[in-house]
Design a protein that fits this description.
Largest sheet: 5 strands, parallel
Low-confidence stretches: none
Number of helices: 16
Radius of gyration: 21 Å
């Protein structure tokens, strides 16, 4: 019987199996940010274990409240900053060089097919887009990862989701993953890996694949995974060109992590997306999904474009194409947070930032702040946000606020009209 990508990665990284079904894996990348890691650092210090297993395998960033907004968040940042300096962690991204963790780390080439990746952040599953097993973990597991470079998992079963057909005009990766979550439900992939495949995925950029895998957790998934292919190799080539004689060699090497043709899945779901329309959420769960045409006309107070889901350059290009030469509605405030400084600079160089500002957007530095209601876009009670983020739980972006999750295109159209709007009319 063949093996899935997740099974191959587990087999290659297995260190121990202390109990039947509990597998201790060696970890290739331990990622850290200033919200969850300071707790782990403090506990390690209290236990007299202020050490790191390998400074080259730890990546750290201050990304949620940046710059710090008060003494508490400044203290969190200081703990991480002092720890990174104390242990000479080279890949630490402080204010000015920092960005959204799940955008800046792939951008720096830190993730490879076949890697094991952990972080104290649920959207770590983003990095499975590279053919890696990437999972969010709790504080104790993060501590062990930092100290010993291992993490224990129960090997997850895999659900295969084939995205067939092709995406229609005005429909993007965000719409595709909302369709998948609507199909699976918020608990449909609990303790499972969602393996994405099919012609729609094959045609996607790495950025779009990261959007897919980013929201696997919203269906309960431990990780989302896409098969490494030529698109993966092209994206990584600036970082791997010294390791391979050619892209052909790199593709052959990474191909060993692809699921076998006779791999066994717990479930296989086939979805034809050829007739998919732009989608958005309603209510307070990410599986509560409707066509934007059904929701059109719903007033919004704020439009937010950014996050680890949709703050990349291709997202900004899509939204800017709709906004060019137009103004946002006077009843709405619109906020753009490019996910990394590199994306910000490229958006400036391409004239995209000018388009956003002329349309009436407030352009902020790279930050995760608005997504979880911490800074740079918090909602007041009773306010409604059309957002390219990944969660619409009650109070997610501010106490008493409502969040509609949607694509950058739909966000741009909604900003123009001051209400949820179908972007296809602007294309």
């Amino acid at each position: 019987m063949g093996m899935t990508t997740a099974q191959k990665i587990f087999a290659a990284h297995l260190v121990d199996e202390p109990f039947a079904g509990t597998k201790v894996l060696g970890i290739d990348v331990v990622m850290c940010h200033e919200i969850t890691t300071p707790i782990a650092i403090a506990d390690l210090m209290a236990r007299g274990k202020d050490r790191v297993f390998d400074t080259t395998k730890i990546k750290a960033v201050i990304d949620h409240v940046t710059p710090s907004k008060d003494s508490k968040t400044a203290t969190q940042a200081k703990i991480l900053r002092d720890w990174a300096r104390r242990h000479e962690i080279k890949d630490f991204f402080d204010i000015g060089a920092n960005g959204v963790c799940h955008a800046i780390f792939p951008e720096k080439g830190f993730i490879r097919p076949g890697n094991t990746v952990i972080m104290g952040d649920s959207h770590t599953c983003t990095h499975g887009a590279f053919g890696a097993f990437a999972a969010g973990v709790g504080t104790t597991d993060l501590e062990v990862g930092i100290l010993k470079g291992v993490c224990a998992f129960r090997e997850p079963k895999t659900i295969r989701v084939n995205l067939n057909g092709s995406l229609p005009k005005g429909v993007y990766a965000k719409d595709a993953i909302l369709r998948v979550i609507g199909e699976l439900g918020v608990n449909g992939a609990t303790d499972r890996v969602i393996e994405f495949g099919g012609p729609v995925v094959a045609a996607m950029t790495m950025e779009s694949r990261m959007t897919l895998c980013n929201m696997a957790i919203e269906a309960g998934g431990t990780s989302g995974i896409c098969m490494p292919d030529q698109v993966t190799v092209d994206y990584l080539w600036p970082f791997i060109s010294d390791s391979f004689a050619s892209k052909v060699e790199a593709l052959a090497s990474y191909g060993r992590w692809c699921s076998d043709a006779d791999a066994e899945y717990e479930k296989v779901i086939d979805l034809d997306l050829s007739d998919l329309t732009p989608l958005c959420t309603f209510g307070y769960k990410p599986d509560q999904v409707k066509s934007v045409t059904e929701m059109a006309g719903t007033p919004v107070d704020q439009v937010y474009l950014g996050s680890c889901t949709n703050g990349r350059l291709e997202d900004l290009r899509v939204a800017a194409a709709i906004l060019k030469g137009k103004k946002i509605a006077p009843t709405v405030r619109a906020i753009l947070s490019p996910a990394t400084p590199k994306i910000y600079k490229e958006a400036v160089d391409e004239g995209l930032i000018q388009i956003f500002m002329e349309a009436g957007f407030c352009v902020t530095n790279p930050t995760c702040g608005a997504c979880l209601g911490m800074s740079n876009g918090v909602l007041a009670e009773g306010e409604v946000c059309a957002s390219t983020t990944n969660r619409n739980f009650m109070g997610r972006m501010g106490k008493g606020g409502m969040v509609h999750l949607l694509s950058p295109a739909t966000a741009a159209a909604s900003a123009i009209e001051g209400k949820l709007a179908d972007p296809r009319k602007y294309l």
